[in-house]
Amino acid sequence: MTSAPVTPPRVRIAPSPTGDPHVGTAYIGLFNYVFARKHGGTFVLRIEDTDQARCTPGSEQAIFEALKWLGLNWQEGPDCGGDYGPYRQSERLPIYREHVARLLAEGKAYRCFATPEELAEMRKVQREQKLDLAYDGRYRDYDPKQAEQRAAAGEPHVVRMKVPREPGATTTVHDCLRGDVTFENRLIDDQVIMKSDGFPTYHLACVVDDHLMKISHVIRGEEWITSTPKHVLLYQAFGWEAPAFYHLGLLRNHNKSKLSKRKNPVSVFHYRDLGYLPGTFVNFLGTLGFSYGDDRERFTLDEMVERFEWSRVSPGGPVFDPVKLAAFNADDIRAMDVDTLTSQLIAHLYTPERLRAIVALARERIDLLDDFVPYTSFFFAGKVDYSQVLGKMKIKKRTRKEVVNILKTYIEEIERDPAARGFTAPELETFSRAFCERHGWKTREVFTLLRLSITGRTAAPPLFDTMAAVGKDRARLRLRDAADVLRQQPEW
């Protein structure tokens, strides 16, 4: 393991605003933040929003909120009053176009006019011939003058980088945690660097931004290792010095599979909203790739900064163990004095906005103030008891497997639907009715399953108002729990 110069480092975290903040983003952010603080450097926040079809303003705000909750405060970017912020790639398009034009003029990139239909046919032939699926370079040697004429006429096209193809050519990536990794250039695709809509791809934008923002160390997940040779080639094409690269191990489940939102609660807000303490969560993330020493696992963020060295960081894929996280949190709650814990509980459970929403749903169904807590308990609980409603989950003419699968499918599709990300009652109802129609289920069937899964009761306030008040993360957790409980039941 080698170390690059560290005085003073400039590092960045560059999430895409396409959904709830992922725990993996928090993990990478933590190591960037700690490294910068250790050496008196700068921690930069950059929003990579060039994929306009998937980006939402709410997701961008959620990134800010999650980082602030964890105490990972950036020195440049939105709300910092720095000389450079905010950094949003969608606001830097002229910069990228200028750099693409430079590569085109120097013959280090080329315009590709292949249509989607042509590319689909190309991939079909490659599959039939059992070849690697990759762009075949059909426009690589196309006459640049003709390409400019077609582009000037408004013909749709993309711009691709021109990977050096000399026989035996290779590109070596030096990873400061893993050593040298060498790639054969013949296996590196002529990657698209500018899309037909005029937006850059990640590969071009991140290289240009990292150079112009003077990023000295790129600390990110190991899934980017195979993309790094493309980035190194772009640095070489521009004549720039590449930053030092550190690729941390991907967070994994106990079975070593990748931590995925389709199978696990991976939103930072899932853990925040269930009542995990931010300091505890940061401590837990730190143990996943960093060894404090002395067999010690409990430490504060400041203590991690003080003790941080790259020799204490493992590049292996750490296991994200929710049981261990819960044990950490339990210890920290028990260590609190009563007054502090009381304040934490009030702030967590009874924010004025949340309490008002729940009161509005409950007031028609309570006769005494004392009725409020038992009637609304499911709004606050992390999990619910399904023992009293299992019989009601048996949908007539539907097998147990069908019921389990429709719940799992609902979870997967609501994760992907941009219109449902706000998790408001109108959005949930629109999505759910379309979901039923799409899958051939009656609304009565699916809505009953949702109500029972979310509340554990047959009688509750209006379904979608209830789901919205329960909150996105609690609701998804309960849908997963209900599916798991049903999966363990005998077939009916």
Q: What attributes does this structure have?
A:
19 helices, 10 strands, 4 domains, 492 residues, single chain, three-stranded parallel β-sheet, Rossmann fold, mainly alpha, Glutamyl-tRNA Synthetase, domain 3
Kindly provide the radius of gyration, computed on alpha-carbon positions and rounded to a whole number of angstroms. Answer: 26 Å
Q: Distance between termini?
A: 58 Å
CATH superfamily of the largest domain: Glutamyl-tRNA Synthetase, Domain 3
Average predicted confidence as pLDDT: 91
Are there runs of 5+ residues with pLDDT below 50, and where?
1-5
Strand order of the largest sheet: 1-2-3
The helix/strand order is: EHEHEHEHHEEEEHEHEHHHHHHHHHHHH
Top-tier CATH class of the largest domain? Alpha Beta
CATH architecture of the largest domain: Alpha-Beta Complex
Specify the helix fraction band: 40-55%
Which fold name fills CATH's third level, the topology of the largest domain? Glutamyl-tRNA Synthetase, domain 3
**Number of helix segments?**
19
Biggest sheet overview: 3 strands, parallel
Question: Which descriptor suits the 3D outline?
Answer: globular
* Extended strand count: 10
User: What is the number of independent domains?
Assistant: 4
Tell me what portion of residues adopts beta-strand conformation.
5-15%
Structural class label: mainly alpha
